[in-house]
Specification:
single chain, alpha/beta, Rossmann fold, 11 helices, 13 strands, globular
């Protein structure tokens, strides 16, 4: 069973069978480890390390596909207007850890930096640092770049690092999947631990946000925490090798992606004539062999911006387009009293 099949299982509320039962059994031990770690921090037996900057943690309770990376970029760009901002990421899938961007120049190639840090470097003017120990990455940002705001990417479970504002993101459609902990479900820890968060943001990747507004009311009643909406909507599809060229909506295309929840990406393409979709594992490292497979139908290709940063290093005979997304956040509301 590959990663995509496991992901489907994680969001199947009717999942059953021997394999699923084995995963649920393993989840018991995973839960014990999570709760023990949280107990140590909750009772101050272990204490997080601080840096001399205002730290905002942006994370989630579930594994990939929530839409965290564009939200991190929006926060960085908001604060960058009058503050020195650094984004510290674990750098999943990166070959090299360290400075991805100094805020002026991108210093690592995509294959070395990892797709998400590289995309952040392209779409913000913040310092981007990858470090498995977020505290050390943040410390470097403060000491070497005078960072005043640290955005800790995917840091909700990383309790070794102190944060001033803890934000949790939840997908309005996928929610908590089958409500099981890893490896049986997508949950990284028990849902009740959302109580640690200061604020909740619901990500609505849709055109109609009615369901998201209803879900916000449910979350506020259940957790007694102020919950906000982030609208993520499709924008344009541009040629990744010539950004001035836009995709004609009547043109037949093949769509592909290597992200956590590809279904929502394909939904965004409903106005385009997509004749086939191809799924790769999340954070997939594309090769020329993949290009051959993708070009078999002899049609233009369309993918996500996260995948596009990796595809730019390869040789394509067909045009490759990327779907740009618009992210809408009300920062005045979210940051009120903070």
């Amino acid at each position: 069973m590959n990663k995509n099949e496991i992901a489907k299982l994680h969001y199947d509320k009717n999942a059953k069978g021997l394999f699923f039962n084995l995963l649920k059994f393993s989840s018991v031990f995973y839960a014990m480890g999570c709760e023990f770690k949280n107990f140590l921090y909750d009772h101050k037996i272990l204490k997080p390390k601080k840096v001399d900057a205002y730290v905002i943690s942006i994370g989630n309770l579930t594994t990939g596909g929530v839409g965290k990376t564009p939200v991190v970029a929006e926060f960085a760009n908001f604060f960058k207007k009058d503050k020195n901002v650094a984004i510290v990421s674990r750098g999943y899938g990166s070959k090299k850890k360290g400075i991805v961007s100094d805020g002026k120049e991108i210093l690592l190639k995509c294959e070395d930096a990892g797709d998400e840090p590289f995309w952040l470097a392209q779409n913000t003017n913040a310092v981007i640092i990858t470090s498995p120990v977020r505290y050390l990455g943040a410390k470097q940002a403060v000491e070497d770049y005078n960072a005043q705001i640290i955005i800790a990417d995917d840091c909700f479970q990383h309790r070794k690092f102190y944060r001033d504002l803890d934000i949790v993101l939840i997908d309005s459609e996928k929610k908590f999947g089958n409500n099981c902990l890893l490896p049986a479900g997508p949950l990284r820890e028990c849902i009740r631990n959302i109580k640690r968060a200061d604020k909740i943001i619901v990500i609505s990747k849709n055109i109609d946000h009615t369901e998201a507004f209803d879900y916000i009311k449910t979350l506020e009643q259940k957790f007694n925490k102020k919950t906000y909406l982030c609208k993520v909507e499709p924008d344009i599809c541009y040629n990744i090798f010539d950004e001035k060229e836009l995709l004609n909506k009547k043109e037949k295309v093949v769509a592909f992606s290597g992200i956590g929840q590809p279904e929502q990406f394909y939904k965004f393409l409903k106005e385009y004539d997509v004749v086939k979709t191809l799924d790769f594992d999340d954070h997939h490292a594309y090769t020329q062999e993949d290009v051959k497979v993708l070009e078999e139908l002899n049609l233009p290709l369309i993918t996500t911006e996260k995948d596009a940063v990796k595809c730019k290093t390869l040789k394509f005979n067909k045009k490759v387009f990327a779907l740009k997304l618009k992210t809408h956040l009300n920062f005045e509301e979210i940051l009120k009293n903070d």
